[in-house]
Design brief:
496 residues, Aldehyde Dehydrogenase, Chain A, domain 1, Aldehyde Dehydrogenase, Chain A, domain 2, seven-stranded mixed sheet, six-stranded mixed sheet, 16 helices, binds adenosine-5'-diphosphate
Length: 496
């Protein structure tokens, strides 16, 4: 099979790289395997891509190691920054192609995909700006010593990304790793390999030396597992399910104790108080759960509403939910497209059936939409009990539960009642309530009177079982550097 294929989207026609991008070249997998990626809108294959197996991971890691120790370390921090900035410019130049690929392969609405690309470019440019501002400290201990620290790259980084925001996750991983002088082997999600491969082509054009950025397609249990347990990878960064996150941590512990950062699942509470601006709250709650078809680790999937406004909120939230346009990602005004795959569709429908059986009330939705494509109607469950699976487990689809609370203490208690702690939100017009509740929620992010407003300058990550470490902002740089202490003795020999 060729290494490039012409692909047509409803918007345009372009050349899609389908090989593995290793050591600055497009290659086939050693075992010659390929797999198809499916269009979730019509369930038909788009194109086949080459598959990386363990041997390809070995080759990519060797290329990354060689680049790290030869060419890459000679590139100045400013030049690393310049390359990242150039890459950001190329993302913006090709925004229509990149957004079309995302919509085709992932199913997200084209208008939303464009926002992803804007943010991915912003993230790359932001980390480009950091590249020449990474430095240690000098530390005075006494007259006879000169002490300083160096923030050195961790080394070869394995990065494993999910399918829900393919290019955004690509940029969150590549940006800080490259800015700090590491080299990477990044595995794309098997459901959505196309945009990340196209981005590899842009990285090539941006002028990174061979081996610095290696991008491979492959399956989690094969190529992903090979990265997690590799003896010559110094750090692994993973975004995906909590289940797989645990296996990555175990594989790292059993192999070479590589550093691990994990960005995992969530079951985030979105809390609305009686005194909230109700129109504002409804629009953010709607966006909080249905954005990206509910396929967000930080989705506001548990909606807690104070009893004074509960009935009115539920009535109007249902109307708002029904107004969301669900359909073809390339359709005008589409807000919600299909779920990414048959597997995800089946999982979500399984949760919906489970909720019905457990006795929750379906306020709206609760079934598939049409009979082709992985479309699910936006779904609200009411009259739920704390121990129901739909209240405790991550559904990763356009499905939320709504719960009534009386007091602030009760809202906090329910808010903190799952094993997750990724995100949360508070809607209130009282500043004191906002601050008290924000302080009490055990979550990596608290949004006040908004939802999902992630920004590449501010850190993102989880409390509890939602992850380890933080991505984005200056905090992400810490994951990709290790500190070396140098102590120079200026005094006399101690035992002379
Ligand atoms: P989801 O269930 O939403 O598909 P996963 O956590 O399974 O999320 O997948 C996220 C990423 O992790 C994907 O790139 C996938 O290929 C990879 N992955 C899945 N299983 C493993 C594994 N056992 N080891 C390493 N990576 C894996």
């Amino acid at each position: 099979m060729a290494l490039f294929q012409t692909v047509e989207t409803p918007n345009l026609k372009y050349e899609q790289p389908v090989g593995l991008y290793i050591n600055g070249e497009w290659v086939k997998g050693v075992e010659g395997k390929t797999f198809e990626t499916i269009n979730p809108h019509n369930e038909k294959p788009i194109v086949a891509v080459h598959e990386a197996t363990e041997k390809d991971v070995d080759i990519a890691v060797a290329a990354a190691r060689k680049a790290l120790e030869t060419t890459w370390k000679k590139v100045t921090p400013s030049d690393r920054g310049r390359m990242l900035t150039r890459l950001a410019d190329l993302f913006e130049r090709d925004i229509d192609i990149l957004a079309s690929i995302e919509s085709l392969d992932n199913g997200k609405a084209f208008s939303m995909a464009k926002i992803d690309i804007v943010n991915a470019a912003g993230c790359l440019r932001y980390y480009g700006g950091w590249a020449d501002k990474i430095h240690g400290q000098t530390i005075d201990t006494d007259d006879d010593s000169l002490n300083y620290t160096r923030h050195e790259p961790v080394g070869v980084c394995g990065q494993i990304i999910p399918w829900n925001f393919p290019l955004l996750m690509w940029s969150w991983k590549i940006g800080p790793a490259i800015a700090t002088g590491n080299t990477v082997v990044l595995k794309l999600a098997e459901q959505t390999p196309l945009s990340g491969l196209y981005a590899a082509k842009l990285a090539h054009e941006a002028g990174f030396p061979p081996g610095v950025i290696n991008i491979i397609s492959g399956f989690g249990k094969v190529a992903g597992a090979a990265i997690a347990s590799h003896m010559d990878i110094d750090k692994v960064a993973f975004t995906g399910s909590t289940l797989v996150g645990r296996s990555i941590l175990q594989a790292a512990a059993k192999s070479n104790l590589k550093k691990v950062t994990l960005e995992l699942g969530g079951k985030s509470p979105n809390i609305v108080f009686n005194d909230a601006d109700i129109d504002n709250a409804i629009s953010w709650v709607n966006f909080g759960i249905y954005f990206n078809h509910g396929q967000c680790c930080c989705a506001g999937s548990r909606i807690l509403v104070q009893e004074g406004i509960y009935d009115e909120f539920l009535k109007r939230f249902k109307e708002r939910t029904l107004a969301n346009k669900v359909g073809d990602p390339f359709g005008k005004d589409t807000f919600q497209g299909p779920q990414v795959s048959q597997l995800q569709f089946d999982r979500i429908m399984g949760y919906i059936e489970e909720g019905k059986k457990a006795g929750a009330t379906v306020v709206t939705g609760g079934e598939r939409l049409g009979d082709t494509g992985y479309y699910i109607k936006p779904t609200i469950f009411a009259d739920v009990k704390e121990d129901m699976k739909i209240v405790q487990e991550e559904i990763f689809g356009p499905v939320c539960v709504i719960q009534k609370f009386k007091t602030e203490e009760e809202a906090i208690k329910i808010g903190n009642s799952t094993t997750y702690g990724l995100a949360s939100a508070v809607h209130t017009s009282n500043l004191n309530t906002a601050i008290r509740v924000s302080n009490a929620l055990k979550a990596g992010t608290v949004w006040v009177n908004n939802y999902n407003l992630i920004h590449y300058q501010t850190p993102f990550g989880g409390y509890k079982e939602s992850g380890l470490g933080r991505e984005l902002g200056s905090y992400a740089l810490e994951n990709y550097t290790q500190i070396k202490t140098v102590r120079i003795w200026l005094g006399d020999a101690l035992f002379a």
